[in-house]
Amino acid sequence: MLSYLLATLTFAGVYALLALGLNVIWGMAGMINLGLAGFFALGAYASALATVALGLPIIVGIVIAIAFAAAAGALLSRLTLNLRGDYLAIVTLGFSEVIRLIAANEIWLTNGSDGIPGIPGPLRGTLTPLEFNALSCALLFAAVGLAWWMTERLRRAPFGRALRAIRDDETAAAVAGKPVRRYKVQAFAIGAGLLGLAGAAYAHFTSYVAPDIFRPLLTIYIFLALTAGGTGNTSGAVIGAFFVILILEGSRFIEPLFHGLSGAQGAALREIIIGSSLILIMRIRPQGLLAERPPKSLRTQ
Amino acid sequence: MLKLNRRAFLSASAATLATPALLRAQSGAIKIGTLTPLTGVGGTYGPSMRDAILGVVAQVNEAGGILGRQIEVASEDTQTSPEAAVRAARKLIDVDGVSAILGTWASSITTAVAPLAWESKTMLMCVSGADSITKLPHQGFICRTQPNSILQIQVAGDFMVAEGATQMAWIGPQTPFAASSIDILEQIAAANGAGMESLIYEADKSTYRSEVDQILRGKPDFIMLGGYAADSTVLLRDIWQAGYEGKIIGPAYAVNAGLLDTLPSAVTEGIYTWEGAPAVNSAAYANVKAILGVDEVDPYSAQTYDHASLTILAMAAGGDSSGDTVRQNVRSISQGDGQIVESAVDGLAALAGGINYSGASGPCDFNEIGDITGTQFVFKTISGGKPSEYKRV
C-alpha cells in the first residue's frame, strides 16, 4: 500500500510539473498550448536517449531534456508569435502530433513504436521497489518545490506583471513599452522547459517511453488540473495536479463498492466518476480551488 | 450556491485515500490480477478476456480453491494507454498484492508494465505479439500465449508463396512489428524469386487513396495487410475501388466480424485471413464457450483462460501462491510427458501424477524466454462475407 501511495504521489509530482509549466505559458502569459504532450515527449525522449544511447549520467540527461524542450518551445513560439487563441491551439496540437509521429517512425533514433525500455532510474535495481518509489517521490517533490518557488518568484517579479498585462491586453502592454514579443518567447521557453523536465522525470521513474504514452489525453488532464487548481495561481497548479491524480486513482476504489458490474460497466462507471467530479469542481469553483490573486510585488515584502 | 472550502476538500480527499485500507481487510485469499483493456482501442476485447479469467477462478473456487484457500481476482483497466496501465499495475501489485497480472493486450502496455512485474516478482502473462517483449531482462517473469510476430509473418509469407505470389506487397501502419514484417517478407520473396514492396501509412486516416495508388504502382499480385480492424476497413474499400484484382491476406484480428459486417461482401470476397488457431475441438475451448456463453471464442479470451489456468496450476504445483512460484512451475505443468489436462479443475485433480496443460489457445508450451511454441495456424477465406476454413499449418 505504501509503495502504491508513493508511486501515485510521484505521478502526481510529474503532473504538477506539467501544470506548473502550463501555468507559465497559459496561466500567466495567456498562450494556449495544446502541445503539452509533445514537449513532455521531447523531454522524455531526450533524457532517455542521452542516458541509454550515449550513456550519460541521469542528471545530464535531465539538463539536456530541459534545454531541448525549452529550445523547441522558444522556436515554436517565435514561429507563431502572431497567432492567438484558436490558431495557436491548432499549431501546438499539430506540433505534439508531429513529435509523436517522429517518435513512431524514426526508428533509427527512437526505436519506433517498440519504444525505449530499460531507461535508468536513480539507484534502480540496488534499492527495493518500495525504497525506489520513496526516493523517486522525494526527488519529484524537491523538483516540484523548486519549480514552484521559481515560477512563484517569476509571477511576483516585474516580468510576471508584464506577462499578465500581455495576457489581458497585448496591445495595451505594447503601448506601455513592454517588449511583448520577447517576453512571450521567454515565457513559452520557460514553461516548455518545465514540461521537458516532467518528461525526463517520467522516463526515469517508469523506465520506459513509447509514442503511445504521449497521446493528447494527457494534455487534457493537465488543462483540467490547472483549471481545477486555479489558472494563473502557482500553488493552484500544484494542488490541481494532485486533485486530478486523486480523482483518477481514487475512482479505482469506488468501483468495487458496486457489486455485480461487468468489466466494461465498471470501467465506464470509473470514467463517469472522473468526468462528473471534474464537472462538479468547475461548477462549484469556476475560478479553481485557489483563485488567482494579484501578487504582492517582491520588493514590498 | 454550495461552497467547497479547503477543509472540506482535504477531508474528502483523506476519506477517498483511506478507502483501500477498508477493502484490503479481507485477506487470506490468493490474489491474482487482470489488466485488460476495458476502454479505448482494445475495449472490444478486454471485457471478455477478463470474464474468461473470472470464469476459471469461479470453477476452481467452487471445487475448493487451491492450497486450502480461495482465489480472488482484482481487475483493472489499461484504458489502452501505457501511462494509465502503469498506474493500474502499481495498484494491483502494491494495494491488492496480486502474484500474477494476466491479459495485457497492446505491446507497448506489456512493455511498460513489465519492469514493475519483474522488480516486484510478479508474474506477467500477456497476449502481445511484439518480438521485443520476451527479449526484455525479465528473468522468467513474462510468458505469452500469443505467437511472436516473426513466427506469424513467416507462416503467412510462406502461405503467400505457396498460393503463387510473384510480386508481394505489405501495407500497414507503424507498429512494433511493421519493420520486422517487411524484413521477413523481403527475405521470403528474395528466396523464392518474387518481388516485394512495402508502405507504412499513418493510422486513423479516413482515406488511403494515395497510399493505395502508390502500392499498386508496383503491380503486386498478393498484398498483406498489417493494420488493425479500423484502418483495414478503410484500406480494403480503397483497394477495391482502385480495381485491384490480385489476392489479399490480413490477420484475423483485423479482418474480423466487425469489418465483414461493415464492408459489402463484394469488397471482401476472396480475402484470406490467418490466426494462431485456437484449439476449437478441445475440451478447454468448449469450457471457455460455456464460461462466456458464446458460440465462437475470440483468440484473446481463449488465451486469458489459459493464463488463469496456468497460474493456478503453477501455484498448486509449487505449493505456494507467490509470483516466483508461478515463474518456477509454469513450465513443469504445461509441457512434458504428464497427463494432458484442459482445465484448471481437472489439472488440480491430476496434479500428483504429473500434468501437461493443453489449453483453449493451443498446447501452451513455452521456450526459455517465454515465447509460445508449437502454435497451429488456421487460414480462412472470405466468401459472401463469411470466413470459412481454407487450410491449417
From TrEMBL, chain A:
Subcellular location: Cell membrane
A cellular component term, taken from the record's GO annotations: plasma membrane
Membrane topology: Multi-pass membrane protein
Listed transmembrane segments: 6-25, 32-50, 56-76, 88-110, 130-151, 187-205, 217-248
InterPro entries assigned: ABC_transp_permease, LivM-like
Keyword list, A-Z: Cell membrane, Membrane, Transmembrane, Transmembrane helix
GO molecular function, one term: branched-chain amino acid transmembrane transporter activity
Keyword Flavoprotein belongs to the record: no
Entries under PANTHER family matching the protein: HIGH-AFFINITY BRANCHED-CHAIN AMINO ACID TRANSPORT PROTEIN BRAE (PTHR30482:SF10), HIGH-AFFINITY BRANCHED-CHAIN AMINO ACID TRANSPORT SYSTEM PERMEASE (PTHR30482)
Protein's recorded name: Branched-chain amino acid transport system permease protein LivM
Organism: Candidatus Rhodobacter oscarellae
Species classification: Bacteria, Pseudomonadati, Pseudomonadota, Alphaproteobacteria, Rhodobacterales
TrEMBL record, chain B:
Naturally occurring in which organism (per UniProt): Candidatus Rhodobacter oscarellae
Phosphoprotein in keyword set: no
Protein name listed in UniProt: Branched-chain amino acid ABC transporter, amino acid-binding protein
Entry keyword annotation includes Nuclease: no
Domain Leucine-binding protein span(s) in chain numbering: 30-334
Keywords assigned by UniProt, alphabetized: Amino-acid transport, Signal, Transport
Pfam families attached to this UniProt entry: Peripla_BP_6
Signal peptide (from-to): 1-25
Protein family according to the UniProt entry: Belongs to the leucine-binding protein family.
